[in-house]
Specification:
single chain, alpha+beta, PmbA/TldD fold, five-stranded mixed barrel, five-stranded mixed beta sheet, globular
């Protein structure tokens, strides 16, 4: 515990020294956990899983010209001794400082890059479209879309509960079914739905090992596990260069209120920055991005190489699109 205290104190001091606009370290903490699962029944099933995680988190408030912005950073730390306080501080402060001075842009259609965390938030909210349960009930936009092109051919989606790059790995789902890697979308074409035993039986197929509970006493539902859009070859700087002029969206707000899971229509408040000649020009705020997710995913121009799972079970790289409708001034 003394090592943890010393590291947290070092991160706190690094945040304070990272930028003169830092007003306060609002939160700093450490979470270390171990978990295990065991499923045993009278049919001969006896399976176990276990895991361990170490997470450092830090919050910061920055101020400039009377404007205050908050930033929050969660870092998965496999080895505490190798955690770099200066790098953790840089990331935490960078997120907050990046939103200072944000102003709207004129309404219109803009080439847009959804930065990886914004893309993860949007895609992660809509992964229920791959649920075999919802598809069977007609509540998914992918009903009757088997083997149809639903996304751009630059997009491949994989679900792999055994992916060792992820924080949480599962060899079995909560029904005792073995998990496996599945290609849900192959170069834009919808190939595979996710199933637990109930949805699989309804549709005459086998469970894909995606029957998970959201809590110990919860019911088993169909859920993705370590699901991602596979990364492309372009770095984020290369995405900016290819776009030239446009917008980068770094954060979305109102995902649960401004999005229809059946039609995939969305209208969301967002934050980011304007790009000119492939370079960041100024922060952008007080704007709304709107569209239809399925339509948007057919207009992909490039996929970034910056996939980072962090602490998530759904992750995306940055993705560039031909255009999005932006409501601003």
């Amino acid at each position: 515990m003394e090592e943890v205290r010393e590291k947290l104190a070092a991160v706190e001091e690094a945040i304070k020294a990272a930028d003169p606009r830092v007003k306060q370290v609002t939160e700093i903490g450490w979470n270390e956990s171990e978990n295990s699962r065991e499923i045993t029944n009278s049919k001969g099933v006896h399976v176990t899983d276990s895991g361990r995680s170490q997470i450092l988190y830090a919050g910061v408030a920055v101020e400039e010209n009377g404007e205050v912005k908050d930033g929050f950073r969660v870092e998965v730390v496999p080895d505490l001794s190798k955690a770099d306080p200066a790098e953790i501080a840089r990331r935490a402060v960078e997120d907050a400082v990046g939103e200072l001075g944000g102003k709207p842009v004129s309404s219109g259609q803009y080439p847009v890059i959804f930065e990886r965390r914004a893309m993860t938030a949007l895609f992660g909210t809509l992964t229920d479209m791959f649920s075999g349960d919802l598809i069977g009930k007609g509540l998914s936009p992918l009903k009757d879309k088997a083997d149809a092109a639903i996304f751009s051919d630059k997009i491949t989606v994989v679900d792999d509960p055994k992916n060792l790059d992820c924080l949480d790995v599962a060899n079995y789902d909560d029904e005792g079914c073995p998990t496996r890697r599945k290609v849900l979308v192959d170069r834009g074409v919808f190939r595979q739905a996710l199933h637990n035993t109930k949805s699989a039986a309804r549709m005459g197929v086998e469970s894909t090992g995606n029957g998970f509970r959201h809590g110990y006493a919860g019911a088993v539902s169909v859920s993705p596990k370590n699901c991602c859009i596979l990364p492309g070859e372009d770095s984020f700087d290369e995405l900016l260069r290819k776009m030239g002029d446009g917008l980068v969206i770094t954060r979305l707000a109102g995902l649960h209120a401004g999005l229809n899971h059946v039609t995939t229509d969305f209208s969301l408040q967002c934050f980011g920055y304007l790009v000119k000649d492939g370079k960041k020009e100024r922060p952008v705020a007080l704007i709304t991005v709107a569209g239809n997710f399925l339509d948007l995913m057919k207009r992909v121009t490039a996929v970034g190489s910056d996939l980072d799972w962090e602490y998530r079970s759904v992750a995306c790289p940055s993705v560039a699109f031909e255009s999005c409708a932006i409501a601003g001034e």
